[in-house]
């Protein structure tokens, strides 16, 4: 996390536009304490980046995470958090309950992909799409490309609905 631009000590949690030298607007990232002390108005909350969200989630390893084990490769969710990558293609399904909230949380930072209009879904094709999307999602998570993962998760959900599974 970035340090506050004013005190340089506390973690910056707010963003504020100020007039800097020469009357040019500058964006400061400040802590709540400094914002209050200086009476800064018009602050907006700093959104953690996708990477930070995941880093944070990875740091918080609970007992529950040690007990959540992928039936495919035997990797625990705690290991996934440490390594940041899945062990096998089944991991996503195995860790879905835990991955879901993570992915949902970063979704705010991801531009929304609209529903593709098309003809009625063909179940066989949808099933194939589900398989492909699962593989792509796995790749995205392995590559720590969580924005892509969130996007693919969306597509996967829709494809699964179309496939009737
Ligand atoms: Zn400060
Ligand atoms: Zn696995």
Q: How would you describe this structure to a colleague?
A:
- The longest helix has 20 residues, at 123-142.
- The protein is mainly α.
- It has two domains: 1-46, no CATH class; 50-163, no CATH class.
- It is elongated, with a radius of gyration of 21 Å.
- It has helices spanning 32-37, 50-59, 63-67, 77-83, 91-94, 96-107, 123-142, 146-163; strands at 14-19, 25-30, 44-45.
- 50% of the residues lie in helices and 8% in strands.
- The site of one zinc ion has 8 residues, from helix 1.
- One zinc ion binds next to loops.
**Overall tally of structural domains:** 2
Mean model confidence by pLDDT: 79
Cα-to-Cα separation, first versus last residue = 41 Å
Report the radius of gyration as a whole number of Å.
Answer: 21 Å
Which quaternary structure do these chains form? single chain
Q: How would you write the strand order of the largest sheet?
A: 2-1-3
* Share of residues in helices: 40-55%
Brief digest:
The protein has 165 residues and is mainly alpha-helical.
Describe the protein's topology.
Layout: E1 14-19, E2 25-30, H1 32-37, E3 44-45, H2 50-59, H3 63-67, H4 77-83, H5 91-94, H6 96-107, H7 123-142, H8 146-163
Antiparallel strand pairs: 1-2, 1-3
Helix pairs in contact: 2-4, 6-8, 7-8
Bound molecules: zinc ion (2 copies).
């Amino acid at each position: 996390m970035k340090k506050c631009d004013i005190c340089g000590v506390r973690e910056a949690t707010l963003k504020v536009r100020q007039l800097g030298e020469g009357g040019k607007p500058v964006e400061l990232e400040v802590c709540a304490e400094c914002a209050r002390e200086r009476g800064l108005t018009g602050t907006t909350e700093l959104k953690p980046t996708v990477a930070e969200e995941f880093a944070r989630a990875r740091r918080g390893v609970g007992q529950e995470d040690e007990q959540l084990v992928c039936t495919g490769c035997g990797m625990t969710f705690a290991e996934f958090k440490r390594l940041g990558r899945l062990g096998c293609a089944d991991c996503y399904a195995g860790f879905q309950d835990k991955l879901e909230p993570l992915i949902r949380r970063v979704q705010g930072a991801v531009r929304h992909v609209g529903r593709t209009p098309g003809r009625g879904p063909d179940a066989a094709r949808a099933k194939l799409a589900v398989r492909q999307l699962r593989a792509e999602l796995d790749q995205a998570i392995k590559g720590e490309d969580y924005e892509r993962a969130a996007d693919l998760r969306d597509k996967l959900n829709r494809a699964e609905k179309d496939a009737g599974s």
